[in-house]
Amino acid sequence: MNILKMKTWLLLGMLAVLTGCATKAPERKDYTELRKAGPRSVLVVPAVSRSVDVDAPDYLLSTISQPIAERGYYVFPVNLIKRVMEDDGLSDANLVHAADSTKLASLFGADAVMYVVIERWDSKYAVLSTVTTVELSYTLKGAAGQPLWEHKEVMAYDPAAQQSQGGLAGLIAKAVVAAIEKAKPNYIPLARMANGMSVIRVGQGLPAGPYDAKHQQDKEQF
Hints:
This protein is of the alpha/beta class. It has a single domain (3-18, 29-200), classed as Rossmann fold (3-Layer(aba) Sandwich). Helix content is 40%, strand content 22%. It is built from eight helices and six strands; from the N terminus they run ααββαβαααβββαα. The chain has helices at residues 3-15, 32-37, 56-70, 78-87, 93-98, 101-108, 167-183, 187-200; strands at residues 41-44, 48-49, 74-75, 112-126, 129-142, 147-157. Strands 1, 2, 3, 4, 5 and 6 form a six-stranded mixed sheet that branches. The model is unreliable at 3-22 and 165-183 (pLDDT under 50).
């Protein structure tokens, strides 16, 4: 993986505030089917959104290819795929997700199909705090339609949490950054962070693909 990109994700991670109480680390996923299928190429279809933000699916689509490709898989050009599907009458992401994954895979010659559902893509404002949250659900299916990998990732960002100044000046500073975040929520960095952590998280993400030097050498972690 590109070291610079990794450092960027880690830096973003320092800024991200994960919501909820600390929980026990999840058990390692079962990678039997994924290893057996051994996909080399991944077709990412348009995301289904449960958010009121109409731009969320396009923003998400612009952030997802790079981390999967850096994990060692060939990713079909997402914008081209979206255009081809629209030309074929599949402009509704819900219809795409409901379609036969084997037909989608064979249509483009893909080894696997990645589905993403945007569960949350919102920014909740209070006077001194604005928390922006991105919650994504991922499902990877093989060319034969079999489920290979499922994952859910949640990232939340509260810029006011980074303000350490106290007193009246501190309250004013928090109110200002909360208002700025409300006016222009920081969705793109959060989406990049969620996608990046989803594929590299040990025991939860994707094993190194065939175009990664660690392919088949990370079986103890994945």
